[in-house]
């Protein structure tokens, strides 16, 4: 399945969630990641995210697309800097 | 069509992009909005966003879903505070 992930975490946890998302997905905007994951990868990713966020404070939105379909995405404004520029 | 919008703008422009998005869509996370728009509304929204962002710096990602389909969204972590708490 294809996923789009958007996180809103406390600043002190941003490096960990960023590192976790980078292990599984492509970085497309400051706190937005995308990519295709198998069901098993999705479960491991979910567990990894749960391990770095404060579930009482941080928010992670996960949009999933059925197998074989990918999001139609438009980019308005500046093309994103290369992910390494974004913390 | 249904849209999911994620913006990453310079801090000084956040209030304007927030106000613009609120006029058209539902606020679901700090810089994430969702909602159904007609083709005409989508065009007006796009023009309104172009009017408040710096297209050389700010980034707005717009995920569109074909008519009749809506995203499957999971929320990990904290349920979002009411939109008015989020600037």
From TrEMBL, chains A, B:
CDD domains per UniProt: Cas2_I_II_III
Q: Which UniProt keywords apply?
A: Antiviral defense, Endonuclease, Hydrolase, Magnesium, Metal-binding, Nuclease
Q: Which residues form a coiled coil?
A: none
Q: Where does Mg(2+) bind?
A: 8
Does the keyword section mention Hydrolase? yes
A GO MF label: RNA endonuclease activity
In terms of InterPro entries, this protein maps to:
CRISPR_associated_Cas2, Virulence_VapD/CRISPR_Cas2
Q: Which cofactor does it need?
A: Mg(2+)
Q: Zinc as a keyword?
A: no
Name the Enzyme Commission number(s) assigned to this protein.
Answer: 3.1.-.-
Name a single GO biological process: defense response to virus
* Family membership: Belongs to the CRISPR-associated endoribonuclease Cas2 protein family.
- Report the function annotation for this chain: CRISPR (clustered regularly interspaced short palindromic repeat), is an adaptive immune system that provides protection against mobile genetic elements (viruses, transposable elements and conjugative plasmids). CRISPR clusters contain sequences complementary to antecedent mobile elements and target invading nucleic acids. CRISPR clusters are transcribed and processed into CRISPR RNA (crRNA). Functions as a ssRNA-specific endoribonuclease. Involved in the integration of spacer DNA into the CRISPR cassette.
Q: What PANTHER family does the annotation carry?
A: CRISPR-ASSOCIATED ENDORIBONUCLEASE CAS2
**HAMAP family listed in its UniProt record:** Cas2
Q: How does it assemble?
A: Homodimer, forms a heterotetramer with a Cas1 homodimer.
The protein's name is CRISPR-associated endoribonuclease Cas2
Whose protein is this, by species? Acrocarpospora pleiomorpha
